[in-house]
Amino acid sequence: MEFISIVTPMYNGGRFVAQTIESVLAQTYPHWEMLIVDDGSKDDSPEIVGAYSARDPRIKLIRQPNSGSAAARNNALRRARGRYICFLDADDLWDPEFLARQIAFIQEKAAGLVYASYRRINECGDEILRPFIVPERVDYKGLLKTCSISCLTAFFDRTKIGEVFFDESLHSMRDDFVFWLGILRKIDCAYGNPDVLASYRVFGTSTTGNKKRVMKPQFMVYYKVEKLGFFRSVYYFLHWAVNGYFKYR
């Protein structure tokens, strides 16, 4: 059976990280490692993770000075041993069949990158809004219009994608979006699993809960990072804004 590396950045995650780890321990697919990178937390989250690591060697605690989520993910990516890579933030949850269903899906599609649908929950774990059902496939131009790939459900094959890393110069703002764009420049498309397999925790201060906060960084991804020119940047930005409005209703 193929080995999977799970990348989890953590900063002051003491409130939810135990639930996140428990959702990984509940996976029906057992061949994984969970690389939890503590990004200079000031709460008790490293101790919580350390206790789990002492009981299950598949869970590994890595510590670094506070450097942002992109640096934390890169730290884990450099250490990852799995053919397959996936991401799980320290406050989100997977359904027990997540790994089994996603590895079967990526192999069925012979794909480099797949992603899945997910529900949105609040801080208490209650489902809010409606689940986000992903499109069946997305290519580079489609992703520019709306980001349907989430770190929560993305799953990629390093033998097809190669070594990839997050852009730490973006200071954790839209770095995940740039990461998926970089992968989609390497492959024809990514495939979406319509099954709802995870729970994304929505906070009032999250970027998805505060679209105004990410408007300028989003435009700058088009204009400065992807170098699309002013008018094409405006074109894709308007698509993103309209699609984002309906995505989070």
Main attributes of the structure:
249 residues, alpha/beta, 9 helices, 10 strands, globular
Give the SSE map.
Elements: E1 4-10, H1 17-25, E2 32-39, H2 45-55, E3 59-64, H3 69-79, E4 84-87, E5 93-94, H4 98-109, E6 113-121, E7 127-132, E8 137-138, H5 140-145, E9 155-157, H6 158-161, H7 175-184, E10 190-201, H8 211-225, H9 230-247
Parallel strand pairs: 1-2, 1-4, 2-3, 6-10
Antiparallel strand pairs: 4-9, 5-10, 6-7, 6-9, 8-10
Name the quaternary structure: single chain
Q: Main β-sheet, in a few words? A: 10 strands, mixed
Structural class: alpha/beta
Number of helices: 9
Strand tally = 10
Alpha carbon gyration radius: 17 Å
N to C succession of SSEs? EHEHEHEEHEEEHEHHEHH
Q: Note the beta-strand portion.
A: 15-25%
Q: Which spans of ≥5 residues are poorly predicted at pLDDT below 50? A: none
Cα-to-Cα separation, first versus last residue = 40 Å
Mean pLDDT: 94
Task: Write down the overall geometry.
Answer: globular
Q: How much helicity do the residues have?
A: 25-40%
